[in-house]
Structures are given as structure tokens and as C-alpha cells.
Design brief:
heterodimer, A: 273 residues, mainly alpha, 11 helices, 0% strand, globular, B: 302 residues, alpha/beta, six-stranded mixed β-sheet, four-stranded antiparallel β-sheet, 12 helices, 36% helix
Chain lengths: 273, 302
């Protein structure tokens, strides 16, 4: 397993796609999570003559964990799905799966090694996202001349765990789709359609009876990601789920387990053509 | 004395693979012995590559059994002792040749020092640092052989290793295959290029429509049972030959006799001719081209 993990990490490190995805995450988070909101804060001050204190508090270091989780639940999840799909789908696209399978690792070890390498990469994405949020909030606090109040270490650690869980659920879904569809393109397309369109439609567009609607919201990835994020200060979106953090984490953990098991099972059984 | 299990490297019994309604391999019996260079010959679509994929555990057989180095196909212990190049070599385009081999070395748990040794064997040391996308097809093929040699394997499975190469590249690849096939290493070479097989292989299996049509040493296949006899007097020699048990199809061609003889009985025929007072000047097996043998075998079936 160690050799497979080292091989997978070498491939991820030398490949440009993970770095491009990470750059997109950092830029979108810095620009849309902080830069644009700070610009709005400045414009409002100049045009209306007063400061939106709620918005300013949202950009301070005390809330950086929630801000980072907000970015990971949205853009981060989509990027994690793409990375998961690339990690497996490219092996089919380049025909390299036969090359590595004939080197000797069992399919179980190969799948496990790939998924652990993906989890390592996603934990790096999560940590960098937190660093970006922390850095941006510190800069804004300095510009605004506000005192720096940091969240507790426990909140930061729990937030990192929650962020990694959100990213890993979407990453493993991408991995599973790429294994099932034996490629990258369709896996990314279908995964993003599910993540960005179908889940949203299920929550907001279908006029479910109240209880059925609640049950649906309690079972979807996006709503549970939102519910988990809200415990760290992420603002509630449309069709939100009001669930305890442990329950939301348990649902996401169940999704992660099912996606990982299905992906490894498919990889074990598939013919490599 | 070695037991059968020790001398047989690959053995299949009634190996079958169906893709839906299509039967790619139909009850194949194959036997590759230790230390030989074995050629698996067949026309396009005969089931050669599917057979190799089953032997490597890439594809599950629909029926039948196979053992590779005494293990089931795809078994980790067996794979640890074999190297393979199946169809066109597949590598990571964003990595250099050396980094591709480093990745593969990590998968199979061999030392990184083997990477440079393997690159040296296929004469790619000076281009090892270049990105794979800058490699010619011939270089990729050689890198594929280097990847197959990483584990210093007992068994090497090569599927069409000269595919897409120019004549110089093909000659170099054949030399390389002969070199790596020396000693105790077994090589299973899959090809539809008869000249290649004729020059490189000790024994050949011809498959057609997923079935083994014939499996024999190259010389035996080319001999095909026909004998040429030059003797005096010719009439007496012809009479002895026609009366000799197992002889058929006796013809006089250019003052010599050509005949078919069952089994390995040329020595007995020679003795019978001598006993009848016939002076034998020449008695040899008629060498046919592998191409004619191949066409005969594959056309008989269909």
C-alpha cells in the first residue's frame, strides 16, 4: 500500500491539473469570499455614508473558519469532484490502468492507495483554503484597523475536519463516477450536474409535502454540507437543513463510505480493456 | 528431474472469453515452457490480445482455467515475477520517461536503481529526462519494454512489440527481445508478423477464431512432414518409399522424391532404402516458410 500511495502522490504532485484546481480555489475564495465583499463594503460606505457592520464582522478573522467552509462547500466541492474524477478517469483515458495493474498491486490496494492519495490532496486543499481565509481576513482587519479576534483552536481543528469531510464526499463521488463510466469527461459532467443542478432542484423546485421535503433535505449531500457549515458560521442558503452538526457529519460520512466501497468494488470487478 | 509444474510457465485449459454474443477466445489450450521464447501467432481478431489480457488478470475468463508461473492470473505473487507490454505502451504524458518508470517502480515495490538499469537496457538513458510526449513511437515501445523489465521478471509477455516501428526500429526491437530472452527467462511474444516470430521464437502456437490450431517448435512447423530424398536408382527408391508404412503423397520433382511421412521415422526410411541397395545421396526435411504454414493452418479452419 505504501508503494502505491507514494506512486499516486508523485503523479498528483507532478500533474498540472491539481495545481490548476487549487489555484482556482484560492482565487475564487480570495476574490469572491473576501475581495468583492470588501469592495462592496467600501462602496457602500462611500455611497451611503455608513458602514455595514454585519458585513464587516463577516470579513474579520473571528469568522474565517465559516468563510473557508462556505468556499469549500461551494466551489471547493465542485473542484474536489473534478479532482476525484481526474484521479481515476485519466487512467482509463490514457490506458495506464493496464500498465499499473500488471505491475502487481491488487486492485483493492490500488483503489485504496488512490483514494488515500486523493484524501491527502483534499486535506491539502482544505488547509490552504483555511490559510487563504485567515490571510485575507487578517489583511482586511488591518485595513479596517480592527482588533484581531481569532476563533478557538478547537473550532479551527473541527472546521478543518468538517472541510475535509465535505471535500472528500465530493471527491469520492467524482472517483466513483469515473470508475463506473471508465473516463473523465462524462464523470465530471454528470457529477457537476448532480451537484449544482439536481440537488438544488430537488430542494427548491419540487413542491414536496412538508414531511417528504424534510426527509429529502435530510438525505442530500449539499444540504448536510450546508447544515455542517452553519455550525461554523456559514450563512444559511435557500432550502437549508436545520440539523445538528453530528447528524450532518454522520450523513456525509455515510455517503463517503458508500462511495468509497462502491468505487473499490467496481475497480475490483471491472475488465481492463 | 524437473516436474511438469516446474517446467510449464503458462498453461491454459479450455480458456474462454465472451463479450456478449461475441466469442473472443473459444476453449484455448496453451502451454508455454520455462526458458523458451514462445510466439503466439494469429490473424487480426484471432483472440491473441484477449488471451494475454486474461493471462495478466486484466480480463476475467468466462470459462476455463489458466495458471501463470504456477499462480492464478492476476495473482500478486505471479505478477511480481512477470513483466508485460500489452498493445501500445500506455504511460503518463505529463511525466518524463524516467519519472514514468519511477512511478511504476513504486507500484511494484522495486528499488529506484532498477529504473536507470532498465533505461540503459533499452538504450534510453540519454532521453530518460525528456517528457513522454516528445518521444517517438519507437522510443515509447522501448520504454514499454523497459517498464516490463523493471522487476527483472522470469516471464516477459510482449504483445506486438514492433507495432508501428520502422524497419530499423523493428530490427532493433527483435535484437532486444532476443537479448532479454536469453537464459532462464521465458518470453511470450504475441504477433501477426511471421518474420518476426520466425526469427525470434523457439516454439509457436497458431490461434484462429479464438482456438489453438497448432502448437509446435518453429522448425517442426516449417518442416511439415514433407521429406526430400535424392537417391539412385530413382525408380527403386520410389518403390521402397511407396511401400514404406506411413509414407504418402510421393512425387518426383526435379529428379528427387518428395513425400510425406508420419512421425519421426526418417531414419527408418533411410535404413529401408539402404537395405534395398539404394544409394541415398540426400534425405532432408523440406523447409516451408512460416507464412505458408500459417496460411494453411488459418485457412483450414475457415
Amino acid at each position: 500500500m505504501r508503494g502505491v500511495l507514494r506512486a499516486e502522490l508523485l503523479k498528483l504532485r507532478k500533474r498540472s491539473a491539481p495545481w490548476v484546481l487549487l489555484t482556482v480555489l484560492v482565487l475564487t475564495q480570495a476574490l469572491f469570499g473576501y475581495g468583492s465583499l470588501y469592495a462592496v463594503l467600501q462602496m457602500e460606505s462611500e455611497e451611503l455614508g455608513y458602514r455595514d457592520e454585519q458585513l464587516r464582522a463577516h470579513l474579520m478573522p473571528s469568522t474565517f473558519v465559516g468563510n473557508a467552509l462556505g468556499a469549500l462547500a461551494g466551489t471547493g466541492g465542485a473542484l474536489a469532484l473534478i479532482l476525484g474524477a481526474l484521479a481515476m478517469g485519466s487512467e482509463f483515458r490514457w490506458g495506464t490502468l493496464k500498465t499499473i495493474v500488471t505491475q502487481g498491486p491488487s486492485r483493492l490496494v490500488l483503489g485504496g492507495g488512490k483514494l488515500i492519495a486523493l484524501a491527502v490532496a483534499l486535506s491539502a486543499f482544505t488547509m490552504i483554503s483555511f490559510l487563504v481565509a485567515f490571510g485575507c481576513s487578517m489583511v482586511i482587519a488591518a485595513l479596517e484597523g480592527m482588533p484581531v479576534v481569532l476563533p478557538s483552536a478547537g473550532t479551527v481543528v473541527a472546521g478543518l475536519g468538517a472541510g475535509w469531510l465535505l471535500m472528500s464526499v465530493w471527491g469520492s463521488l467524482g472517483f466513483l463516477l469515473a470508475t463506473a463510466l471508465r473516463g473523465t469527461g462524462l464523470a465530471v459532467g454528470l457529477g457537476l450536474v448532480y451537484q449544482l443542478v439536481i440537488e438544488s432542484l430537488l430542494v427548491t423546485a419540487v413542491p414536496w409535502p412538508v414531511r417528504t421535503g424534510e426527509a429529502f433535505r435530510a438525505a442530500l449531500i449539499g444540504t448536510n454540507a450546508g447544515a455542517l457549515g452553519r455550525h461554523f458560521g456559514v450563512l444559511a442558503g435557500h432550502g437549508f437543513l436545520d440539523a445538528p452538526a453530528v447528524q450532518a457529519a454522520a450523513v456525509l460520512g455515510a455517503y463517503l463510505t458508500v462511495f468509497v466501497l462502491l468505487a473499490v468494488l467496481l475497480l475490483r470487478r471491472c475488465d481492463v480493456l | 528431474m524437473e516436474s511438469k509444474n516446474q517446467t510449464i510457465t503458462i498453461e491454459t485449459r479450455a480458456l474462454t472469453k465472451r463479450f456478449g454474443e461475441t466469442v473472443a477466445v473459444a476453449g484455448l489450450d496453451l502451454e508455454v515452457r520455462r526458458g523458451e521464447v514462445y510466439g503466439l501467432l494469429g490473424p487480426n481478431g484471432a483472440g491473441k490480445t484477449t488471451t494475454l489480457r486474461m493471462l495478466l488478470g486484466l480480463v476475467r475468463p468466462t470459462a476455463g482455467t489458466a495458471t501463470v508461473l504456477g499462480r492464478p492470473p492476476g495473482d500478486g505473487e505471479g505478477l511480481a515475477q512477470l513483466g508485460a507490454l500489452v498493445e501500445e505502451p500506455a504511460f503518463y504524458p505529463y511525466l518524463s520517461g524516467r519519472d514514468n518508470l519511477r512511478v511504476l517502480a513504486r507500484y511494484c515495490g522495486v528499488s529506484a536503481t532498477r529504473v536507470d538499469e532498465a533505461l540503459c537496457t533499452v538504450e534510453l538513458s540519454d532521453r530518460g529526462g525528456s517528457k513522454l510526449k516528445s518521444y517517438s513511437l519507437g522510443m515509447r515501445q522501448r520504454l514499454g519494454v523497459a517498464a516490463a523489465l523493471l522487476k527483472n521478471p522470469q516471464l516477459l509477455i510482449l504483445d506486438e512489440p514492433t507495432r508501428g516501428l520502422d524497419p530499423k526500429g523493428m530490427a532493433e526491437m527483435r535484437t532486444l527481445i532476443r537479448a532479454v530472452g536469453r537464459g532462464a527467462r521465458t518470453v511470450l511474444l504475441c504477433s501477426h508478423l511471421l518474420g518476426e516470430v520466425e526469427q525470434v521464437c523457439d516454439r509457436v502456437g497458431v490461434i484462429d477464431k479464438g482456438r489453438m490450431v497448432r502448437q509446435a517448435p518453429v522448425e517442426e512447423l516449417r518442416a511439415g512432414g514433407r521429406l526430400v530424398v535424392e537417391a539412385e536408382p530413382l525408380e527403386a527408391a520410389e518403390r521402397v518409399c511407396r511401400e514404406f508404412p506411413g509414407v504418402s503423397d510421393v512425387e518426383v520433382v526435379g529428379g528427387k522424391l518428395e513425400l510425406s511421412l508420419d512421425g519421426d521415422r526418417a531414419g527408418d526410411l533411410n535404413a529401408a532404402l539402404q537395405e534395398a541397395g539404394v544409394r541415398v545421396r540426400e534425405l532432408r526435411r523440406l523447409q516451408r516458410s512460416l507464412e505458408s504454414v500459417f496460411l494453411e493452418l488459418t485457412e483450414e479452419g475457415g
